[in-house]
Amino acid sequence: MLLAVGPMDTVRAEGLAETVLEIADPLGARVVIGHAFTAQEYEEFREDLGLEARLEDVDPDEVAAERAPVSDLADRFAEAGVDYEIRGSVGEIGDAVVDMARAVDADRIVVGGRRRSPAEKAVLGSVSQDIILQAPCPVTYFRDLDVME
């Protein structure tokens, strides 16, 4: 199972973790906590951490492990005794998540989203929608009604 997260998911990490645990724990499933970065996001995050290495010299899995809310989710899954790993990827977010799902042979993707109007989706796009439409497996969409963009 792939739990795809981004920086906005910090506020809904607990709900995402509960959703994943409801599915993964009874099945004994392995959870992959995946965080995709655009190249620009990666550069900003790298600079914030004071990392000297450039994009091509750093393992995206290591960068993802340092990004919120990944470490909190990892702690939660460890406490629950659920097998997990952390994966990172750089590219267009929707495509990177779908590629990650294929790479780990995910049976399900769990992705969070926020409430947006149809006009906002039309103008700004929707990463969650892109993932749902391209996914190689079923997608569980965790809709957080309290989070607005």
Structure report:
InterPro entries: Rossmann-like_a/b/a_fold, Universal_stress_UspA, UspA. It holds the Pfam family Usp. This is UspA domain-containing protein. With 149 residues, the chain is of the alpha/beta class. It has helices at 13-27, 39-49, 60-65, 70-80, 93-103, 118-124, 127-134; strands at 2-5, 31-37, 84-90, 109-115, 139-148. Helix 1 (13-27) links the parallel strand 1 (2-5) and strand 2. The radius of gyration is 15 Å and the shape is globular. The two termini are 27 Å apart. The mean pLDDT is 85.
Characteristics:
Rossmann fold, five-stranded parallel sheet, alpha/beta, 149 residues
Summarize, please:
Helices cover 46% and strands 23% of the residues.
The CATH superfamily turns out to be: HUPs
Report the count of strand segments.
Answer: 5
Per CATH, the class reads Alpha Beta
User: Which strand-content bin applies to the residues?
Assistant: 15-25%
Overall domain count = 1
* Structural class determined from secondary elements: alpha/beta
Main β sheet profile? 5 strands, parallel
Q: What is the mean predicted local confidence, pLDDT?
A: 85
Approximately how much helix is present in the residues? Answer: 40-55%
Which strand order do you get reading across the main beta sheet? 3-2-1-4-5
What is the N-to-C succession of helices and strands?
A: EHEHHHEHEHHE
CATH topology call? Rossmann fold
CATH architecture: 3-Layer(aba) Sandwich
What is the first-to-last residue Cα distance?
A: 27 Å
- What general outline do the C-alpha atoms trace? globular
Q: Rg to the nearest angstrom? A: 15 Å
Uncertain residue segments: none
Quickly count the helices. 7
